[in-house]
Hints:
The complex is a heterotrimer of chains A (171), B (1028) and C (98). Chain A has 171 residues and is α+β, with helices and mostly antiparallel strands. Helices cover 25% and strands 36% of the residues of chain A. A five-stranded antiparallel sheet of chain A has the order 1-7-10-9-8. The two termini of chain A are 15 Å apart. Chain B is an alpha+beta fold and 1028 residues long. Among the domains of chain B are: 1-187, Ubiquitin-like (UB roll), CATH 3.10.20.440; 191-319 and 449-521, FAD/NAD(P)-binding domain; 323-445, 3-Layer(bba) Sandwich (FAD/NAD(P)-binding domain); 531-627, Arc Repressor Mutant, subunit A (Orthogonal Bundle), CATH 1.10.10; 693-783, Aminomethyltransferase beta-barrel domains (Alpha-Beta Plaits, 2-Layer Sandwich). In chain B, 22% of the residues lie in helices and 28% in strands. Chain B is built from 24 helices and 51 strands. In chain B, strand 8, helix 5 (207-218) and strand 9 (223-226) form a beta-alpha-beta unit. In chain B, helix 5 runs parallel beside helix 6, helix 5 (207-218) runs parallel beside helix 11 and helix 8 (363-373) runs parallel beside helix 9. Chain B is elongated. Chain C has helices at residues 37-45, 94-97, and strands at residues 3-6, 11-14, 19-23, 53-59, 67-73, 78-84. Chain C has two helices and six strands. Chain C has a single domain, classed as Folate-binding superfamily (Folate-binding fold, 2-Layer Sandwich). In chain C, strands 3-4-5-6 form a four-stranded antiparallel sheet, with no helix packed on it. A two-stranded antiparallel sheet of chain C has the order 1-2. Chain C is globular, with a radius of gyration of 15 Å. Chain C is mostly beta strands and 98 residues long. Chains in contact: A-B, A-C, B-C. Zinc ion (ZN) binds at residues 6, 8-9, 60, 63-64, 66 of chain C.
Amino acid sequence: MSVTVKELAPVGRLSVRTERADAEGLVDALGLELPQRIGTRATTGGRDALCVGPDEWTVTLPEVDCAAVIAALDELDEPACAVDISHRETTFAIEGPDGDTLLSMGCPIDVTAIESGAGTRTVFADVPVTLWRDGPTLVRMDVWRSFAPQVRTILEDGLGELAAQQKLRAA
Amino acid sequence: MSLTLPRTDASPQHAGTLTKPRAIDGPVGGAYRVAGEGRVNRDRPMLFTFDGRVISALEGDTVASALLASGIHLLGRSFKYHRPRGILTAGSEEPNALIGTDRGPGRREPNTRATVQEVFEGLRTTSQNRWPSLRFDIGAVNDLASPLIGAGFYYKTFMKPRGFWDKVYEPLIRKAAGLGTAPDAIDPDIYTSRYAHADVLVVGAGAAGIAAALAAGRAGASVMLVDEQTEIGGGLLSDPDAVIDGQPAWNWLAAAAAELDGMANVTVLPRATAIAYNHQNMVAVAERLTDHLAEPPAGMPRERLWRVRAKQVVLAQGALEKPMVFAGNDRPGVMLASAAHTYLKRYGVLVGKQIIVASAHDSAWATAAALAEAGAYVRIAEARADVPGPVRQRAVDAGVEFDFSMVATGTAGRDRVYAAQLQLLRDGEPRGGDWFPCDTVLMAGGWTPSVHLFSHTKGKLRWDSKRQAFLPGECTEACVAAGAGAGVWGLDGALKTGSEAGASVASAAGYEAEPAKVKVQSNCFGDVGSIAEAAPGSYASAKAFVDYQNDVTAKDVRQAVQEGMRSIEHVKRYTTSGMATDQGKSSNINALLIAAEALGKSPPEVGLTTFRPPYTPTTFGLFANHHRGATFDPERRTSIDAWAADNGAVFEPVSQWRRARYFPRSGENMDAAVLRECATTREACGVFDASTLGKIEVTGPDAAEFLNRIYTNPLAKLPVGKCRYALLLGEDGYIRDDGIIGRLSETRFHVTTTTGGAARVLAMMEDYRQTEFTDLKVWLTSSTEQWATVAINGPKARKVLAPLVDGLDIAHEAFAHMSIAECAVAGVPARLMRASFTGECGFEVNVPARHGRAVWEAIWASAEPHGGCVYGTETMHVLRAEKGFIIVGQDTDGTVTPDDAGLAWALGKKKPDFVGKRGLMRPDLTASGRKQLVGLMTEDPTLRLPEGAQIVRGPLQPPPMPMIGHVTSSYRSAALGRTFAMALIEDGRSLIGSKVELPTLDGERQSAEVVKPMFYDAENARLVGEPA
Amino acid sequence: MLLIYCPYCEEERPEAEFTYAGQAHIVRPGNPSDMSDDEFAAFLFMRDNAKGVHAERWRHTHGCGRFFNVLRDTVTDKILMTYKAGEPRPALSTEAAQ
Ligand SMILES: [Zn+2]
């Protein structure tokens, strides 16, 4: 079976809000330029921003940097703000050629249509998740921490299913 | 060749004796196996059991084909009349041959269709609906009583007397009628699901479906081809004699299968039934993964629900043969001609040796010839006056006897048909005739295109009078029908329309596609087929079955019309025709034709009943798939939950959360534990996991104004560092939620909601933010799961917390009640609130969730030496009730205003507007007589009133008496040394000091005094707490 | 399961990501307290029960989070078009409605 599921170490994660993604000082405060189209990402120097809504971005960054970014955004003239959601979510990395098949067990969207370097909010088995495609066979999935056991169990069942299917094919 | 009719007064008793079926010295796998025929694997024999009897079978057999190969036709008893029933079909439309299967512990399934269940080594099957045995069945007495159990029987008979229903009728009916018995153990199997996305979904992998998949696949479209059978091929699997492009059909099929298999853009799913066609080309497909395996690998799901979203759909579901309606058309040995054909050509099984074919369609003639060629004696009774020359010729060559204008009008036999009555049609009426010995009667009443999935789309059907069938008409979805399912009979037409459909949908999906040209020679199912025009069963007497599974006869249908049913939907419900698990696949069209004739209307005027998903019976497991057992619904746990579990907590569900309810010490029941937790918290301190409280971070320059408009309280000028209890109303003025709002900075608020209200409140706020208060710059972020929240309450709370806090003086004066500040607790950055839901000095420590358990443990380590305790939701409820604090959803029910709840003080009366302000001015909300929240003290201080108990004015009046309210909360209080309750009572505050009565279920009554809903420390002196 | 075109994401997404949010174009008055009881009752309680095209709100809850408007035919349950919150209800030609 060619897919693995791994829970990743925690990272810093901010929900960034502003009506003007191009506001003055925002790039300096965030350390990257915010992508403007929903579903697209911008990645610079260990920081990664996904546009999830017209005025909403999820930004991952080293956890130690969160407080400084929150403070910097509070100082801007154009209203913008960041809320620390580092502990709200946990992340599963789904890696391997069968990864998309595994995700298709819970995701009603066509996950193969998410391009490398893009991402989206959606649901997995009715649980809200955020998907980040980092490569053709690598997808990260953010899940609120209390929903993670549900998602983990269904992913594990899926891995068992794929393994059994392989065994059956070999037989 | 023509048949002479020697006697017209013959009765079944006088019928010629039937020579016992000669045992065929055939191959392994049953005496009726025909050498050289079929796709079953003669090198892989296997054994299974039927009612304990060991049956020989071959790989590739269904239970039905294997039983027939052993000469077994009697499979079960019918639903209502307990009539012996056999095998009618060779497919999933089977109404009769329902069996129980047993695949091991917990894997017993009733009502499995023997025509679908594949045989595997060791499979155990049983007949159903018979007692004590299949051959001798006591319930068969229903058959003799059948004149009493006609159409509308249940409606008419069981109306009176009313009490009889529960005690007499229902148990009797349940015992006498019914199908298999439900499994009695939890299903141990796994079920799974997948979403799939395709350019083209082809439903049905017969000739048309394969041609469609090839055309679309070759064009480069992503294609899914699904078929309910074990292998693709459909009708081709029963038609090896056809020649396609110069190749024998099965060679062509193998090449097509290989080509499809070789295309990376094509997915072929056998054993996969398209069960529902939903909006925008979403088709649900039930794939059976292990029911055919003797030993499925561990972890392998039994079934998989595919939810396929296709840009284009090709429906190539083929057609089902119609039974003919005549007396005794349900006896074992009476089956569809096409089924006999399939059993012979696909399974190598001859269904009988002496066969009568009642035909109204050309296709029966090819079947008759094939059966004769395989060694059976075959006689056709053709309802039509003639058939085309080529159709006749092959039958003549095979030695088939036949008559025209002749119909079957009766059969004889008990567990197997042994004679059939054939009569000549004169002026449309059967005359004369005689009984003919036989062991099998085949019915060929014409073909009904399978329009079930098309009907799911609400697409319009159109009536084709030549084919006597409804065909797909106007589409509402992006779909095309092809082959027999579109009324195109014959292999030639199937391949042609299939290929054209595949090419056209591929083009529609954006690919360049060309239909393939295929040359066909076939003897089967020619497109010349027409059918007899007389309504089926127009000459049928009693026991001529229309719906086999529900035991509905032609007479029942006519009677329904006679008794005033005009719509086919009413006829259906009155007779139950078409309402069995087969959804009338073999009966609906006959029922319609009979009803139409009785009504003197044309079939399209009468209309067809609605087909509803699923197409075939489907397991509950499939629908539930991942959502059962531990993953039925997410069970959310806080980061402190594991500590609670380690320390003996008893849990309760609160919305999706699992919360610690109380922490019993050895020997304690809930009451004892809660009394102890309450007492300890008030005397020393208690520590409580409040992490499930909803939390919303409200940010932006207009955050304060936004909250000021959303909540009832004046919040615009809430100072930084302060908290306020706040009420949230709907526009109607009723309480929706409450919580505490803390201001962290000019532009940042920490807002809490109830546990169950978190998502709802956030959605409501988002609605106002996005669509009503669009002038405000404000943002909302759910932070419920960002924070673990530990509440510390009690006089010693400050003593417990102070040693752990860095960067904040939490003395009473320095950090007053209803303050909020950022600091560090146990070395972790925290948002600390001073707030109390108990009336004691209280703090709420919010720390990032991953630190929750460590901080909890640090606080507990500090609390324990002070004589503190941990407590759960039950103690929280009691302590808040002692202070008269409400719980939204318990003390309110969506019709309670702030004033009703005694919370009018929380209304910002000077505010020009807030959500619900205008609602509160509604006449009904300002009128007197509203239910108000009050306290209740029972006369008996040990008596705890049941929550929900109704309240009446005392003294007790004779019923019916007006109920003036109900108990909302009721507890034992350690602090009061007695019980107490809260209640909503009409004009309750005016009743304070007076008595009310509470009638109980056992006819007794309790008396209680109405009091203010404040039971403890009315002066709030305890909020101060002890110094650190 | 419906496919719904989110006018903010500019993409068709499955219904599972969305939440229904009631009839569209019901504007909360600027100062509700000035309304008569009848006016307020009309605002609070009265809703259309259209057989045919119905303007309603949906929220892309598990996507961009935005509320937006949908014209849906209640007879066929087909979504005819979607548009952003705040935009006026488009006049729908009969052809488009079909
Ligand atoms: Zn969206």
